[in-house]
Q: What sequence folds into this?
């Protein structure tokens, strides 16, 4: 897959478009519509540290790369990731942009119809908070379970579990995702020991 690297300038074409005409009956792992929000409690060593908010922003078109802004916190160089769902309901990372850089390489992050034991390659895109420069690395995502129940303050959710590591197992991340709800829980293990986790506190999904 080719990688398009574009340096943001005043000449870069960015436009906002209307939300896609997604059917309310469509099944997606992470429902994307402008204004959707998810609030999480963040824990370290089972101690509550703070809460965080993820929200779906406008549906935009950057030089032909279309998707929703996926926003979490404020960044000094306005670093923003772009995501979308494909026709099969898979969650796709489109790319990201900042005041200084942009990188687009659409890749399936989470497969909706994955079965236990399935795995696939994913082009992870990350960004440096200091420079706003994006980089890409190839990782493998595993579906480790398809029917894990997670209890939260908003109720109990039946989740698929996705596991990935950015550094060959020194750090492992587990994502618990419930269809048409989104990410319910995330766990971060360091050397096989649970280090941090976040769990759903509240959410709002627009129809």
A:
């Amino acid at each position: 897959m080719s990688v398009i690297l574009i340096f943001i300038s005043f000449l870069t074409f960015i436009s906002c478009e209307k939300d896609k005409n997604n059917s309310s009956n469509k099944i997606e792992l992470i429902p994307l519509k402008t204004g959707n929000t998810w609030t999480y409690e963040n824990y370290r060593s089972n101690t509550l540290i703070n809460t965080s908010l993820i929200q779906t922003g406008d549906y935009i078109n950057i030089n032909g790369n279309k998707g929703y802004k996926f926003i979490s916190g404020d960044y000094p160089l306005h670093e923003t990731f772009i995501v979308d769902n494909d026709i099969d309901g898979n969650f796709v990372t489109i790319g990201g942009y900042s005041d200084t850089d942009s990188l687009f390489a659409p890749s399936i992050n989470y497969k909706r119809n994955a079965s236990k034991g399935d795995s696939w390659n994913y082009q992870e895109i990350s960004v440096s908070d200091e420079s706003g420069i994006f980089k890409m690395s190839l990782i493998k995502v595993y579906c480790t379970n398809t029917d894990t129940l997670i209890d939260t303050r908003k109720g109990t959710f039946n989740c698929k579990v996705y596991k990935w590591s950015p550094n060959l197992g020194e750090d492992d991340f587990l994502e618990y995702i419930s269809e048409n709800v989104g990410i319910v829980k995330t766990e971060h293990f360091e050397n096989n020991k649970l280090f941090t986790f976040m769990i759903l506190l509240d959410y709002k999904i627009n129809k």
Observations:
- Residues 4-204 form a domain with the YmcC-like fold fold (CATH 2.40.360).
- Residues 1-14 have pLDDT under 50 and may be disordered.
- The CA atoms of residues 75 and 129 lie 7 Å apart.
- The chain has one domain: 4-204.
